Amino acid sequence: MLTLDNNCIVIFGASGDLTQRMLIPALFKLYMLKELPTSFAIIGVSRSDYSDQSFRDKLIKHIESDPDVDQAALDKFSKHLFYQAIDPAKVDQYAVLKERIESLETQLEIPSNTLFYLATPPSLYSVIPKNLAAHGMNKEDNGWKRLVIEKPFGYDLESAIELDKSLYKDFTEKQIYRIDHYLGKETVQNMLVLRFANSIFEPLWNAKYIDYIEVTGAEDLGIGTRGGYYDNSGAMRDMIQNHLLQVIAMVAMEPPAVINADSMRDEVVKVLQCLKPLTDHDLKHNLVLGQYTKSHVRGKCLSSYREEEGVPNDSRTETYVALKMFIKNWRWDGVPFYVRTAKRMPTRVTEVVIHFKKTPHPVFSANPPDNKLIIRIQPDEGTLLTFGLKKPGSGFNTEEVSMDFHYKNLKNTQLLTAYERLLLDVVKGDATLFSRSDAVHACWQFVQPILDYKKQSFDLYGYAAGTWGPIEAEALFEKDQTWRSPCKNLTDTDYCEL
Ligand code: BG6
3-class secondary structure for the chain? Predict the structure, then answer.
């Protein structure tokens, strides 16, 4: 039984962007929805010098910029925010932190339940848990202790295994919550309900009826000020190894026996372990890597990746990946999955497109209509099914029409953002939507050949910033297959309707 216990949330990396932009607003929203326990403290930790009050002022300024904010509620919420300066790399300084947590627990009558959120650079992911343990702050004698770790979990397969080894010295798997915010998205979770709560889709959800599947994770923005991080990461590590492979797992997994953390994650790992290993042939013919170049698109002048802040001017880091991959099991034998992601595409859109096979015998026209199921993860979240209609009038000509559902049409429903949902789950102790170590390893195992391949000389194709990527990616497709064009009429606001 999951309960909402009173607790302390300790955020390492409290002066950083993630804390300000995502974590604190998400916690405030949960507070507004009365989803946080009656007594709680949020303690920001970093090296910077803040008082409780100056920390509150800094974080609240961000939320206050929302004109609809409930100021009285925000003032009350801010009283739950505290700050403790320590250098997280220095083990002796944890004594001060421990004392601060204990004193707040006594003052606010909070039992010793603590959630440690690591919103820090990855280099601290093994250091902080070790230092916490040195002061006994991992011990669950009087209450639970949970560790939330942001992505990237490791830099490659070997470092992910090493990181786990280091964490397991002081924490158990049950205490570790590896966050992949894509699993917190309502539309990603809905894939399971769409598939397993409706009897009409699942019988067709296999190689017999599905021709191919596309997964697109397109972003219109460039890398902004994150050049230093991104140039060491690239789209492969930044988006495919985690977010998009998790999406594929949701599309391809078998139904879990029940919805709980073990059962769900058992099925996720099973399908990830069936990803067909990439061969040398795949690396040459089923993978396209690209990097955006300077352009003028729709009245905007966009700089090239190499001109971005923090990026070397001879960088060979990929900002575009297109990959054709397969899942080696009974359900998916021979069905290609085409995955693409990039920065500086024409718009922001994440979607999965299931292309069903054509009818075996085209009675009505030489070119039967497409049956596609489009699962729009963002924006304009929803689901759209295309099918053929008899063109009104004489004869039996067909045309493609659709049935569509948009979340925005749901009455009185507000979608929780990914961080709101995941923070709520971790406070409740529900690990269902967090990645287990075997799944993270399976993802690294799959992408490792690409990381190795990038160490040699490889083709990196340029694409003009603001376009759909290198033309070479078209060559990945088999006959009659191609990317769906997600935006027919891209407007000036770059909004892409389902
Ligand atoms: C992050 C990546 O994990 O996900 C970013 O580091 C990327 O580079 C972001 O922009 C995408 O998330 P979303 O929710 O905006 O699709």
Answer: CCCCCCEEEEEECCCCHHHHHHHHHHHHHHHHCCCCCCCEEEEEEECCCCCHHHHHHHHHHHHHCCCCCCHHHHHHHHCCEEEEECCCCCHHHHHHHHHHHHHHHHHHCCCCCEEEEECCCHHHCCHHHHHHHHCCCCCCCCCCEEEEECCCCCCCHHHHHHHHHHHHCCCCHHHEEECCHHHHCHHHHHHHHHHHCCCCCHHHCCCCCEEEEEEEEECCCCCCCCHHHHHCCHHHHHHHHHHHHHHHHHHHCCCCCCCCHHHHHHHHHHHHCCECCCCHHHHHHCEEEEEEECEEECCEEECCHHHCCCCCCCCCCCCEEEEEECECCCCCCCCCEEEEEECCCCCCEEEEEEEECCCCCCCCCCCCCCCEEEEEEECCCEEEEEEEEECCCCCCCEEEEEEEEEHHHCCCCCCCCHHHHHHHHHHHCCCCCCECHHHHHHHHHHHHHHHHHHHCCCCCEEEECCCCCCHHHHHHCCCCCCCCCCCCCCCCCCCCCC
